[in-house]
Write a structure and sequence with these properties.
Belongs to the DDAH family. By secondary structure, the protein is α/β, with parallel strands linked by helices. The protein is built from six helices and 15 strands. The mean pLDDT is 94.
Length: 257
């Protein structure tokens, strides 16, 4: 059975790092309740949940996606672009070591939220959190594993996966990418079909492909309907409190194959 690695919401989430959103009051208890519903949705999709060690003093600790990248039997420990998150990567490495061959990014900065995997291609957003040195370091690790890297320039949102995510294969076996083309140029991607989010649902492009299901945040009814029209199985959950921390659904888990 595949594994979803998660981490508890820190009671200090109100102090989280923000780049594109204004700071709002965050209720840690409500955020924890929404996170529990998120884990329940992952279980429904067929995943075992393993919680990484709790980091109560690290405000962004729940956003485990940024600290590692899982590729088959391998895990690459990243270097998040926010200095306050350095402590998180060691905890993630401890949690993943029993399950994967662990590699460490030697230089640069790279957030896992900037890495969109579609089959053997890793699209890597060049954002405020991920730089060219980190992208090149990732490439040196993953090329021998059979993956190739495509840098994607961006600046209008936090991570690449804020603007584009992999929804799965369509009825003809072609990868479908849910995309906000105001935030990322579709021209970077090849061999895919696009599902464009409506202008009034700019954050709807961040969906979680979990097994045969898609988990997405509530408040995006038109995008949900588009996905269901394309025969995707969609589970909608409320992530509104976590979204105040600039979160998307993908941010809160590391999913094994």
């Amino acid at each position: 059975m595949p594994i979803a690695f998660t981490r508890a919401v820190s009671p200090r989430i109100v102090e989280c790092a923000l780049t594109h959103l204004d700071r709002q009051k965050i209720d840690p208890d409500l955020a924890a309740s929404q996170h529990a519903a998120y884990e329940k949705a992952l279980k429904k999709a067929g995943y075992d949940i393993i919680r990484l060690p709790e980091l109560a003093d690290d405000p962004d600790a729940v956003f485990v996606e940024d600290t590692a990248l899982i590729l088959g039997d391998n895990a690459i420990i990243t270097k998040p672009g926010t200095a306050s998150r350095a402590n998180e990567i060691y905890s993630t490495a401890v949690g993943l070591t029993p399950h994967f061959k662990v590699h460490y990014l030697p230089t640069g900065t790279l957030d896992g939220g900037d890495v969109l995997r579609i089959e053997n291609t890793l699209y890597v957003g060049q954002s405020s959190r991920t730089d060219a040195a980190g992208t090149q370091a990732l490439e040196s690790i993953v090329n021998p594993l059979g993956y190739w890297v495509v840098p994607v320039e961006m600046e209008r949102c936090l991570h690449l996966k804020t603007a584009a995510t992999f929804a799965g294969l369509d009825d003809e076996g072609v990868p479908t990418v849910v995309i906000n083309d105001d935030w990322v140029d579709p021209g970077y991607f090849s061999g895919v079909e696009f599902l464009y989010v409506p202008d009034e649902e700019p954050f709807a492009a961040n969906v979680v492909r979990a097994g045969e299901r898609i988990i997405m945040a509530a408040g995006n009814p038109r995008t949900t309907a588009l996905l269901r029209h394309c025969n995707f199985k969609v589970d909608v959950i409320d992530l509104s409190e976590l979204q105040k921390a600039e979160a998307g659904g993908t941010c809160m888990s590391l999913l094994s194959d």
